[in-house]
Amino acid sequence: MSNVSPAKGYSRDSRYITTRITADGRDGFPVEPGRYRLVVSRACPWAHRTVIFRRLLGLEKALPMAIAGPTHDKRSWTFDLDPGGRDPVLGIERLQEAFLARDPAYDRGITVPAIVDVPSGAVVTNDYAQLTLDLSLEWAAYHRDGAPDLYPAELRPEIDAIGEEIYADVNDGVYRTGFAKSQEAYEEAYGRLFARLDRLSERLEHSRYLVGDTITEADVRLFTSLVRFDAVYHGHFKCNRHKLTEMPVLWAYARDLFQTPGFGDTVDFGHIKQHFYVVHGHINPTGIVPAGPDPAGWLTPHGREALGGRPFGDGTPPGPPSPAETVPPLLVPSRP
Q1: How many C-beta atoms lie closer than 10 Å to residue 71's C-beta?
Q2: Which residues pair with 11 in a beta bridge?
Q3: Mean pLDDT for the stretch of residues 267-289
Q4: Which of 100, 151, 163, 220 could form an S-S bond across to 136 if both were Cys, CB 3.0 to 4.6 Å?
């Protein structure tokens, strides 16, 4: 969801459905294992957050997941990866159908992630920023044994503060750079993006994670942008002061997370590239999807263990993903 003004540049339309699924059901939707379906696309960085949280917290059985294809048209994300082009549980071809079941006059963006109430077939929420917080707090009764605390109470003010900075300048900043309609708007967004990346590099130079000594919500929010940086944002969105691989601290930090269970095993570079280069026809009118970059570097040693820290705190890593949710392995080109 977005708006673009030649003078002001790009601004995200944040009019989401903010109904919440809570332990006490105060919005009319109590947490119930199996009642809801999380709809995502592996291409979308906002949806990717929920995929990582669901894996780390072990909510796969409690909150089943539907995976939309990497591309969409003006109407909606579609379930073209499923047999017959329909989600096997919801029975719909397009996510739009679930939004219209909630509100027949719905006129806002059809976005992922979205959680659908299976009995009614209607979307409950697409408020991605609140979703991961609620997976941490409201769904706690159904976390796996050994699930990490990704939003510890004593660190929440710091996590929230740095999360707002990451959102404004990085998560959304790459879009404001890539979708700018004037040189002035582009340069303003570009400057903010790389100034923030520089500050994050300084913060992470002597600290393995962004807040405290374990992985938190803040790390997940930054990772989903970093993992797309060289594949999409550097060229497609003209975020080209440096590649991620040319920013040593952030590159090592991103590799550390990528090699942590629950992060790299949720990344599908094929879906990511196909989405951005095909859907954004106004930026890439040929629709050509680049063959690179070489993904081999994601599996190289990062050396960040020397900084200490415990990725999962007092918890444990998640087990391997189910066969139905396993992404294709990295295709590492052979060397001459």
Answers
A1: 18
A2: 3
A3: 97
A4: 151
What DSSP state is assigned to residue 94?
B
pLDDT in tens, 218-238: 999 999 999 999 999 999 999
Q: Position 326: which residue type?
A: T
CA dihedral for 74, 173, 278, 267, sign (positive or negative): negative
Q: How many CB atoms lie under 10 A from the CB of residue 295? A: 18
Average pLDDT over all residues of the chain = 94
Q: How many CB atoms lie within 10 A of CB 30?
A: 13
Neighbours of 285 (CB within 10 A): 8
Distance CA 335, CA 332 (A): 9
Delineate the domains of the chain, giving CATH numbers in brackets. Answer: 2-142 (3.40.30.10), 154-320 (1.20.1050.10)
Confidence of residue 15 (pLDDT cuts 50, 70, 90): confident
Using omega within 30 degrees of 0 as the cis cutoff, is the peptide bond preceding 293 cis? yes
CA 330 vs CA 40, 68, 135, 202, 317: distances in Å: 21, 21, 28, 30, 21
Amino acid residing at 155 = L
Bridge partners of residue 37, in order along the sequence: 116
Two tokens, residue 269 = 């570079």
| Mean pLDDT of all residues in 196-216 | 98
- Which residue type does 336 have? P
251 belongs to an annotated ligand binding site: no
| DSSP character at residue 247 | S
Return the minimum-mean-pLDDT range out of 1-10, 67-76, 245-254: 1-10
Q: What is the pLDDT of residues 94-124, one digit of tens each?
A: 999 999 999 999 999 999 999 999 999 999 9
Q: What is the 3-state secondary structure (H, E, C) of 180-225?
A: CCCHHHHHHHHHHHHHHHHHHHHHHCCCCCCCCCCCCHHHHHHHHH
